[in-house]
Structures are given as C-alpha cells and as structure tokens.
Amino acid sequence: MLSRDYPYMYARVSAKKAKLLDERDYQNLWKMQPNGIARNLGEKDYKKDIDSLGSEHEGVELVELALMRNLSRTMRDLVEISPESLQPVIEGYLRRYDIISIKRLLRWKKGGEDGNIHSFLVPVGDYDLERLEELAEKDFEEIVESINFPESNIDYQEVLTSQSDIRKIERDLDRAYYKDLKDIKGTVSSIWFDEFIDREIEYENLKIALRLKKHCIKEDKIREWLITEQPTKVVEKVIKAESIEQAVEEVSQHIDIDNGETLEEIEHQLEIYRLNKAMKTAHVEPLSATSILGYIVAKIVEVKNLRMLIRAKETGIQNEETIKKKLVIA
C-alpha cells in the first residue's frame, strides 16, 4: 500500500524540479559578470540565501556562500518532507557528498591548506558546513581518525587500510560508501531504484578504469583501485582494452557518447549521461525514492555548474565556449 506521504513528497519535489535552471537560464548567465549573476540568482530559487547574505558579501563570495547554504537547506528539506521509510535512503545517498567533502578536505591538508575551503566543500549530509570547518582545524591524521557515520551499518574506521596514504584513504572511503549504497538498495523494492544505484557504481568504476588505462596501468593494478570487486561487463572490457582509445571505444558501444578528444571530454559526456538517466528514471517511477534521488543529482549538478561559472567569470581565464563545454545540463 502506498503511503499517504508519497503524493505530498512527489508534489513538493516536482515543484522544486520546476525551479531548476534550464539552458535558456544558463545562456543569460553566460552574458553576466559576478554581481549580475548574483542579482539574477536572487530572483530565482536562491533569493532567500542571496538576500540573507547580501548585506555582508558581494560578487563571487556572495554567490559561493549562497549556493552552499541553498544546497544544504534544500537537502535537509528533502529529508523532512520524505516518508519515514525513505529518510534513511536519502540520508544514505547524501553520504556520498560527505565523502567527497572529506576527501577534498584531506587533499587540502596535503596541499598545505592552499585556497579557501568553502570553494570545494559540498555540505549536504551529516557533515554540515560547521562540522567541516571544525574538521579543517584538525591535522590530517586527526581528520582521518574522526571519520564516522553513526547511522551507517558500516564502521568506516575498520575499512581504512592506511592513515596516511591519501590515495588508499580515498579508495577505502569510496568502497565503504558504495557498499553502504548497495545495502540501501536492498531496502527499496523497486527495479528502477536498483538500476539507479547500479548505474552510479558503474559510472564511478568507469571513471577510475579510464583514468588508469590512460596511464597504461596493468589490469591487476586497475582492479585494486575499483570501488567494487565485481565490475560490470563494460568496465571489464575497459580494463582488458589494449589502449585508452580501445577502452573509450568499448564505452561508446555501451553508452551513447562520442569519442571525445580528451579523457576530460569523455568524463563530461558520462556525467551528462548519468544526469539524463537519473532524470528520466524519476519520471518513470515518480512516487518512489528514485524520483527524489533524480532531483538530488540534478540539484547538486546545478550548484556545481554555477560554482564553475562564477569562478570562471572571476578569473577570466576561460572563454565562453570552454565554460559551456564544461557545464552539465540535462
């Protein structure tokens, strides 16, 4: 029997989805400078956040802070409006972005704390901005030792095979998270949701395999860095490919992408594919976890687009065509 909370959730998520920026919105933003972008976003879904921060900040700093605050507030709202049975699913999926923030924070520490941490954090899950800022005050090893997710069935400290090698720490965190995600998958009775999770895992493995194949890493070494022990058929073909060109060809036969000139272009096309699939699945099965996760993917990609755009405008290093190519628009 369908919970009476599901139609309410769907109506709220549909309203949020309607506020996502479309291609026309991005075309207008491309023509603006940072302060103009801030004013434009202040007329859209980011109004509350722009207004509350506008008296103390401006330009790039205003947009960056408003985007983070809006994203964090939106994700908390999604958890609150969701049926109780779905809340652990959403919180579990959002753990992905906790892991991303922690990995970036560790990289920041290794890099001598160069740059503003606010520019790369994604505070949407258990690790809110305040908690991440507290972590930033610790040293590298202390951060690693403090990583924990009480709501998860997995002890993240137990899976860490190193306390100092950042590459192994990142790999182990990803493996723990995707095991977490597969456990969540078993709690939702939906073929579409299962496919959504499987696609997320395959996408991550493809990125890893392609990057390592580009550097001519051997098969056994590539397998050591995958996030799952049993790769899908297309990932297996990439691993066994004799060159990066053949690997890309294998991907293009499985997924509708063009053979781009660079690996960055291929990854960009895969991200667009991932987003489009997530959004289409959300329409196929609207009264489910899949709908809300599809929106989460789209919202986070939108914020990523806007952060990329505002930084490019600030530095003036990249021309308009370069910026356009890097944006992911469903």
Uncertain ranges: none
- The appropriate CATH architecture of the largest domain is Orthogonal Bundle
Mean pLDDT score: 86
The dominant shape is globular
Domain count: the total is 3
Share of residues in helices: 55-70%
Following the backbone from N to C, one meets helices and strands in this order, namely: HHHHHHHHHHHHHHHHH
Strand content: under 5%
Q: Mind telling me the CATH superfamily name of the largest domain?
A: ATP synthase (C/AC39) subunit, domain 3
Structural class: mainly alpha
CATH topology of the largest domain: Topoisomerase I, Chain A, domain 4
Instruction: Profile the largest sheet.
Output: none
CATH hierarchy, class of the largest domain = Mainly Alpha
Characterise this structure.
This protein has 330 residues and is mainly α. The protein has 3 domains: 1-81 and 288-330, Orthogonal Bundle (Topoisomerase I, Chain A, domain 4); 85-163, no CATH class; 191-284. Helices cover 69% and strands 0% of the residues. It contains 17 helices and no strands. Helix 11 packs antiparallel against helix 15 and helix 13 runs antiparallel to helix 14. The longest helix has 27 residues, at 289-315. The mean pLDDT is 86.
